[in-house]
TrEMBL record:
One of the record's GO molecular function terms: carbon-sulfur lyase activity
Taxonomy, superkingdom: Bacteria
Domain CENP-V/GFA: 2-112
Family, similarity comment: Belongs to the Gfa family.
Protein's name in the database: CENP-V/GFA domain-containing protein
Gene3D superfamilies recorded: glutathione-dependent formaldehyde- activating enzyme (gfa)
Record has Lyase as a keyword: yes
Keywords: Lyase, Metal-binding, Zinc
Length: 133
């Protein structure tokens, strides 16, 4: 089991097992959402357990998919999100919220066409100009 939480600890998510995938997203929406130059995300299969209150934000992606982001209403941390219609398949959690420097490295980089030129990727990362097919 892994546990991730917001900065103040009010909102938490617990996931089981190893991540289905770990990746970086460089799309402009993720840059604005995180306040950083990319989002680092890990997806996990259900079940997962959420405790605390969350504020939700629904955003439509470039290819029409709709994503429901959950934020802590107290500290503002963006903790996790799901894709509308795919909640039974996976949940994506912000890697930094695990506060685990030994967390597995990313294996994919999406929307790489928006990656800042000074951001270097770890060796072996699969790069996708936009979303993978």
């Amino acid at each position: 089991m892994r546990s991730a939480s917001c900065s103040c600890g009010q909102l938490r998510i617990e996931v089981d097992g190893e991540p289905l995938g770990v990746g970086l997203c460089h799309c402009l929406a993720c840059q604005q959402r995180t306040g950083s130059v990319f989002a680092a995300l890990a997806s996990f299969a259900p079940p997962y357990r959420v405790s605390g209150q969350a504020t939700e934000y629904l955003r439509q992606g470039d290819q029409g998919a709709r994503f429901r982001f959950r934020f802590c209403p107290v500290c503002g941390t963006n903790l996790f999100h799901t894709e509308e219609g795919c909640e039974a398949r996976s949940v994506s959690v912000a890697v930094g919220a695990f506060a685990d420097p030994a967390f597995p490295a990313p294996r994919a980089s999406v929307h790489d066409s928006r990656r800042h030129a000074w951001v270097a990727l770890p060796p072996g990362v699969r790069v996708f100009d936009k979303d993978p097919p």
